[in-house]
Predict the structure.
Amino acid sequence: MQTIPFTKNWFLQMMIFMYVGIWIWLAVEPYSRYDWVLENLLIWAALIGLVSTYKFFSFTNLSYAWIALFLVLHTIGAHYSYNENWVDVWLKFIFHSQRDNYDRLVHFSFGLLLAYPIREAMSAWTRLTSKWLYVITCVIVLAMGAFYELIEMWVALLVAPEIGILFLGTQGDPWDTHHDMELALYGAVMAMVVTAVWRKLRASR
């Protein structure tokens, strides 16, 4: 946790300025305006939560950078409705696959990029030991990934049943939901392993 006032935190201000510019750019002519609005609900909820709680709890700038990077990836996905984009073309070439895999990349990035901020929050809010923080962080990422899949289902059924297939993006894969949660967990585990090694190296200096 950091105590830098927002007015003096130029790095955070710069990240916000850059993200807003990217968001405005990608808000122009999305693949599906209706799906774009639904996908952006997550972004708006996250930003409202971060802004409204800044005075009570603020992450380090490193955590804000990871959060911002994930939001950028999700914003790109929202623009294309997680359909084929330039990243998908590259992934298809690399993995020789016909599936649009950008959504899988974002689910993996959810665990990889947000595990550190979650651990940072848990470190400040709980009395868990360092080892348990790594475990609980991975559990929270898995739980959040599962809850997001439920949110997608509820939105598809209640809000926009006419674009349910587009919004869910399963692409005919019966295991799509399981793979999404699996990749988020793998990303979190990788992030926690890197964090543990990094902290151990810093402590040994």
Summary: The radius of gyration is 18 Å.
